[in-house]
Amino acid sequence: MGKKMKLSRCSMSADEFIQKTDLINEESRQDNDGNYQYCELSGISIENKRLRGTTFNFSKLSGIVFTDIDLERAEFNFSELDNVKFVRCKLDSSAFDYASMKKVVFENCMMEGCTFDFSDGEAAFSDCKMAFVEFHHSMASIAMKDCAGEQIQLSYSPRLTVNAENCDFHGGKFIDSSLYGTMKNCILTDASFNGTDASGASFMECRMRDIELLGSRGVDVTGENDDDDDFEMDF
Fold first, then answer.
1. Is pTM, for the whole model, over 0.85?
2. Residue 81 burial class via C-beta count within 10 angstroms: exposed 0-12, middle 13-18, buried 19 and up
3. What is the CATH number of the domain that holds 132?
């Protein structure tokens, strides 16, 4: 796969990175062409910048903290992220496809329409807005807490571990995957499980009204929780 290729990266110091981001912000571009492709960045904390549309493709990022950064439509494709943290960042429509992740954390971020296709490793999400986020062909281990993930898609993944608590996955799509982990007190109403093996997963006190089960197994609705007295499962 492409992300395993040996790449010739430039090394950028923290000061150089800050100077470049300051220049981008000073120019007040509506969409900047900030390019950090093939760069190696480490030990940087950056706050209150606008890096919309910036590319970090094929880069190696370690020990980075992004706080209150506008990264809408940013690209982290084929990147290596080790101990990277995003706090209160805007990441709508950003791409982490083919990314290798280790100790990656997203806290209170806006992430509508993000993609993590073919990603691997581990990432944790808390208090994030994740509508229409896609994990296709992913082999990641994902932890989610108090996230709004309506219409989330977790599909075509041979081994995807999801440990989620108090998350809204209304209308989520789980297609042709092997699913592991525990979902606790999550909303899964109108979700679709098509061709998915969830025998390695558990669902605890989840709301599972009107879910679709087509060629799937292991989706245990016996512990479902729904406040509507007239709720009935019928499939």
1. yes
2. buried
3. 2.160.20
